[in-house]
């Protein structure tokens, strides 16, 4: 079955790209596994006109609107392999045993978050263990906040930023801390530096009441900000030969201003292709990719 475009990933970036192609009356197939990165969050904040709406509902509503276009098909599966065809375009193999072909590919399958190996972090991810103050900071305003310091991956300035929302403790977790100049800035802003190694997080269910230090002390906080290392959610880009760049938290798919990767006909959008992102930026990135793919179909044919 041949499509003008096949989109790998049906979240904010992939669906936004598909909408542009659908409205251009192109035949589009979206392949998705149903596990978006922000599925752990109860609500998405800051998205135009959708503040406070659960991200899974936003995706479901967008998918329903997209499927109203007759040229769109949605397949619940994973793309397990893909390769270029001699005559042009690409053939992909799906986890359900199907094979599809398309003139253009968009890689919008996102990234996975590698959380620190600290007891209590995983079950609170997206609820009281957070990554973005603009997404979730307002809900924890003026409460006791914490920032887990990642040497070499996160500047101490991040704790200065978090302090905008409430009194903040920077947890070094037994590691090397910021230099004297950075410490002076933190202390001037009222940020407390806790050097001890963390034994675990405590609280009822997904709530957080404090960080237990290895020496037995409990530091009361209600939200902990972390910057997890990320990895691509699929090896597909590497199999296609696409280049990556090193980002502050993980590899980032290399794309040009038109969202084209280093492989002709393969585009990238969303968290996979952005060093810093949120739902709004991922959606905008997908929109640009969809428009670029369509223009390529018209002008490069």
Count of β-strands: 19
Order of helices and strands: EHEHEEEEEEHEHEHEEEEEEHEEEH
Strand content: 25-35%
DSSP helix count?
Answer: 7
Helix content: 10-25%
Average pLDDT, rounded to a whole number, is 94
The coarse overall form would be elongated
Give the terminus-to-terminus CA distance: 20 Å
Biggest sheet, in brief? 7 strands, mixed
Low-confidence stretches: none
Protein structure class: alpha/beta
* C-alpha-based Rg, rounded: 21 Å
Quick synopsis:
The protein is α/β, with parallel strands linked by helices. The chain is built from 7 helices and 19 strands.
Describe the structure.
Helix 1 runs parallel beside helix 2 (55-66) and helix 1 (12-23) packs parallel to helix 7 (279-299). By secondary structure, this protein is of the alpha/beta class. Strand 5 (90-94) and strand 6 form a beta hairpin. The model has no long low-confidence stretch (mean pLDDT 94). It contains 7 helices and 19 strands. The strands form 5 sheets. Strands 1, 2, 3, 4, 5, 6 and 19 form a 7-stranded mixed beta sheet that branches. It has a 5-stranded parallel beta sheet with strand order 8-15-9-10-11.
